[in-house]
Amino acid sequence: MKILPVSLIRDADAYTIKHEPIADIDLMERAAENCALWLQENINKDQKLICFCGSGNNGGDGLAIARLMFEAGYKVEAYTLCAPEQMSGNCRINYDRLREYGKKRRLTCSILQESGKFPLIDKYDIVIDAIFGSGLTRPAEGFAASVIHHINSGSADVISIDVPSGLFCDVTTRITPEPAVIHATDTYTFEPPKLAFFFPENAPFVGFWELLDIGIHPDFIDSANVQNFMVREEEMALLLRQRDKFSHKGTYGHALIIAGSTGKMGAAVLSAQACLRSGPGLVTVHVPKSGVNILQTAFPEAMLTIDPAEDHFSAVPELAAYSAIAIGPGLGMNAHSAKALKFLIQQAKIPVIFDADAINILAENKTWLGFIPKGSIFTPHPKEFERLVGKSSNNFDQNQMQRDFSFKHQCYVILKGAHTAITTPDGLCYFNTTGNPGMATGGSGDVLTGIIAGLMAQGYSSLESCLFGVYIHGMAGDQVHWEKGDYALIASDIIANLGKSFQLLFRNNIHTIYGKF
Q1: Which among 257, 279, 467, 484 is least surrounded, fewest beta carbons within 10 Å?
Q2: Structural contact between residues 257 and 286, judged by C-beta atoms closer than 8 angstroms
Q3: Is the dihedral of CA 492, 419, 386, 204 positive or negative?
Q4: DSSP letter at 193?
C-alpha cells in the first residue's frame, strides 16, 4: 500500500470528489460514519464521549462523529475551539447540522473561550481529538496548545481522528519538554497511512493506530508516484510461488550461512534452522571446528563446511555451489574474521546478506563497502546501523540516511524495529506491519537472516526476499504472541511457527495450490 505525503492526500480527496463523483461534504460524512462504526464496536455506551473540534476539516469530522455517536445512543459532549464564522465551509456545515439535530435532543455544542474554563474530563470518559488534521504546517500554539495540554493532563483514553493534533506527518515534530501534541491512546486514521506513524519517536503521540477505508478513488492511488509503502498481507501472499509436483531439492537452491564462534554457536543453529524452514533445498553452514558437534547434533539436516580455526571464522569456503550467501550471526570480531570477510566480498559473485558482526566489521572498515556485490542486503538493528552509517537527530533523518546508504552502495537495508524499514537502491522505503515487542529477544535477528537466505536461495530477488522475509518473520512471531504472549517468546518459537505462517499466506493467495485445501 502506498504512503502518500500530505500534499497528495489533499489531491486524492479532490480527485475522489471529482471522479467518483461525490460532494466533499458527503466524503466527510463517509469518513465520519466509518469512524463512528469503529467507535461503536470498541466503546461501551456507559462511557461519555467528549469531542474537541477545530476549525478545519478535521473539526468537521469530529462534529459529524459527535452527531452520529449521539444518534447511536452514546452520551456525547461537543466543543469547538472557535466561533462558527471562523470555521471552514464543511466544518461549518457539520456544526450547523449538529446544532439543528441537537435542539430537541439535549445535544449541545459549546464554543470554548480562551478566558473560560475547560470542560472537566473524568478518567472513565473518552476524549475524541479532532482539533488538527494531517495538513498542519506549524506547531500548535496559543489557545489550541492550551486545549491540547488540558487533554494530555487527564487520564482518560484519547482517540485521535486521522492524526493526533499537533503532529506533523511528513517531517519530524519539534520535540520540546512538553510538546503541544495530543498523546492519543488510539488513532483512527483514514487511508492512506501517514509516514509519521511508522517512526518510534511518534509512538507516544499516535498510540495504537487503525487504518480506515473511506473510499479514496483507486485510480488516483494507482497513479500516484511515491517513495514510501506499507507492506500488507495480500501483497505478500501474491509473492509465494507454487511448487512443482516433480521438483526436487536441487530445484530450490543451496544456501550458505557463515556463522558462529565459541560461545555463540546457537546463532548459527537458529539461522540455519530458519533458513531450511523457509524452503531452500539445501543449507550448508560454515562453522569453526568447535561448532561441528553442536551443529551436527542440534540440526542434522544441515551440511557443514569446517573452518580451519578452532573458535572463529578465518577462511572462506568455495562459493560456486551456492545460490545465496549470508554471514554474520554469532561471528565475533576476530581480526582473522575481518580479513576473511574482506576476501568474501572480493570473491562473491552474487548478493551477500550481511548481519550482526559482519556489519560491525564493515563499520570499522568502511572502505570495503565500495566492493560489496550489488543487490546485497544489510540487516542491522538501530545500534549496528548507527555504527555503520552514523548518528541521526531524529527518525526522519535516520530514514533519509538509510535511503542514502542504499542508493550509494546499491544495496538493500533492513533496519529492524517495530515497523522494520526496508530501503532499496532506487530510494524507496517499505515499512513492515507484522511483529510484536516479544520479538525483541536474543536470536530473533539470526532467524530473520536465515529466512532471507532461504528465500534468496530459491531465486527470490533481493527485494522480494527482504519484503517477504521480514513479513513472514513477523507473522510467525505474531503466532507465538497469540499463544504465549510477549514475555515468553523466544527465537526458536518463531522458527516453529514459520510453517503455520506460510500456510496462512498460501490460503490467502489467489491461486489454488494443489487443488482445494
Answers
A1: 484
A2: yes
A3: negative
A4: P
DSSP 486: T
The dihedrals phi and psi of 209, each to the nearest 5 degrees, come to -120, 145
* Nearest of 200, 209, 171, 240 to residue 38 by alpha carbon: 209
Q: Give the angle subtended at the CA of 279 by the CAs of 275 and 283, to the nearest 5°.
A: 45
Q: According to the 3-state scheme, what is the secondary structure of 380-444?
A: CCHHHHHHHHCCCCCHHHHHHHHHHHHHHHCCEEEECCCCCEEECCCCCEEECCCCCHHHCCCCH
Q: CA-to-CA distance for 292 and 181, rounded, in angstroms?
A: 56
- 356 closest CA partner among 489, 490, 450, 255: 450
**Tell me, what DSSP letter sits at residue 329?**
T
Domains and CATH numbers, the chain: 2-226 (3.40.50.10260), 252-508 (3.40.1190.20)
pLDDT digits (tens, 9 = 90+) for 305-335: 999 999 999 999 999 999 999 999 999 999 9
Query: Strand pairing of 208-212 and 109-111?
Result: unpaired
Cell readout for 205 is 503521540
